[in-house]
Amino acid sequence: MPLILAMVLGDKMEDAFRQSMLLSQGLFSIFFSNGLVSTLMVLAFGLGGWGLLPKFRRGRRRFVPVKP
């Protein structure tokens, strides 16, 4: 299901991203110019980072030195 969704929406998202970059002359601040859009972007990045959090926790525990 996610692959089908990506195939259907991928081209449209790429076109919208390209159009936004052209209108803002390459500034990423256009994605944070509105309060609603800023909230959604922060939530999207937060959810993306949330999935990586357990991986970093496991990696950190591996390097703790063992006390004799």
Automatic annotation (TrEMBL):
Q: Where are the transmembrane segments?
A: 27-53
According to its UniProt entry, this protein's organism is Pollutimonas nitritireducens
What superkingdom heads the lineage? Bacteria
Q: Does the keyword Transmembrane helix apply?
A: yes
**What keywords is this UniProt entry annotated with?**
Membrane, Transmembrane, Transmembrane helix
User: Know the name of this protein?
Assistant: Tricarboxylate transport membrane protein TctA
